């Protein structure tokens, strides 16, 4: 009886993979005997024909006939892209897209030279990544266009890493400087690409925890710390040791492919998955998406040798896989962006309503205070008391105003020369004359009430910042006889405004005068940057009532408006982190869906190849 061979035996004899032999059998290039569903045997006679043909033509370099009417599959002669080439193209595309769409990508305010190059860098990532992806699709790796796009991506990774480093984001800088380093290694030493990708993952997983110990980072391990009860640095140290052990085991026993692939995917993917969850919670979607790509490529790495055969069928499978992955990430990124924009619209409307209420409240308190002083300024007893310097009468009058108003910290009276006559509640002031003050000059010159900008005043030896409501005292002939000064209770107004804001979402009000002086702010905002002052004062003076502020220097959604005709600006802010972030469940579902759909697409294509 003629001897027969299994598909695996034929593959070992001919030097092909079992997938290739199944393809040859399916297409009739090798005549086999079907012995069951998807099972074949090849006769000794058929194998001898193939071996004879292979020996005479040396690995079948051109289309050849094994049977009279059936051609052999022609190997692809172009330069086939490696796993690392596909990875770099997808990382560049997703990174560029996420940097363009999402608002947060720097750890600290970006006050660095050449910061105007940030936007071109984002576009370069996107365009160069798409260019490299197209080159890979047409199997033109290591050609001229390949190196052009490769160089652009290389330079952009270095630039992005530099920006992150100058922004004090050491972990992010390390993450992205590692890419160009491995790109150089890949071009020079590892043209197959699998080792390059494995080195990238190994260095990333080993050194990231170490950097977290040595520097501050947005990555927090609060959940793990809470569960274990250990110190943060201890958790990171134990994590580092575990990752080092796993990586050593993988590299030392890399011949045990099945075990190694399972160990590397489960352990490393779990660690990266936690990083993804933390990055997405901090709105660093660019890094979260790149880490998701790393997990997916780890999965592809486990069977890369099977689909990397130099045949048309295998290339079609790889093309479908990577095009599908690109579409999944485009859809996922767009989905996140749409959700964030819907949240933004809702939050903006909410903040506008709160701002209008806060502005009306401020105007009402200021107007009420001014009205009380203007009514008193017309009191004949007050005018006579100022003329005669009758302190007792003056004390009684301003005491009544103070006691029936909750908006004053103190009420003062000065004569036409600016000499302070009295104040209530009484304090010792460090100056007896206020004629040098701008508000006194303004009131004396215009004979109209005036709301001052914020200024520093001294009483009882203590310095404090004050806003005053200043009302002229005029006699029957409209002659200037003096001034009533109401020291406005800023703290009272601040407390009422803050009660409107949602402290759970870290909302807060700020108020500045026309010179940019900070009148009201939470305790942790001591001063404004020049950019913030320009936005607040400049836009209000131009008639811009509502403004979304996504500047890197404050990272908050801001709505602002003018306070009546006082040339003050009131604004309410909510940090971006408390505006765009999702709850934990939503973050998990988004990440899980991206990974799940990607792995499903890959599995279906591999299943089709094996079938």
Q: Tally the helices: what do you get?
A: 20
The main sheet comes to: 5 strands, antiparallel
**Residues in helix, %:** 55-70%
Rg calculated over all Cα atoms: 37 Å
Count the domains: 4
Shape estimate: rod-shaped
Output the structural class. Answer: alpha+beta
Count of DSSP E strands? Answer: 16
**Which spans of ≥5 residues are poorly predicted at pLDDT below 50?**
57-78, 549-554
Task: State the separation between the terminal residues, measured CA to CA.
Answer: 30 Å
Strand order within the widest beta sheet: 7-6-12-11-8
Structure, explained:
With 611 residues, the protein is of the alpha+beta class. It folds into 4 domains: 4-71, Multidrug-efflux Transporter Regulator, Chain: A, Domain 2; 83-310, no CATH class; 343-358 and 493-578, PAS domain (Beta-Lactamase); 378-489, PAS domain (Beta-Lactamase). The protein has 20 helices and 16 strands. It has helices at 7-14, 18-27, 44-57, 83-101, 118-137, 144-166, 170-188, 194-214, 222-228, 232-252, 257-281, 285-301, 304-307, 312-377, 380-388, 391-403, 438-446, 490-500, 530-541, 584-610, and strands spanning 4-6, 33-36, 39-43, 65-67, 70-71, 408-415, 420-424, 450-451, 455-459, 462-466, 468-474, 480-488, 508-512, 518-520, 556-563, 568-575. It has a 5-stranded antiparallel beta sheet, with helices on both faces. The chain starts with a strand and ends with a helix. Residues 57-78 and 549-554 have low confidence and may be disordered.
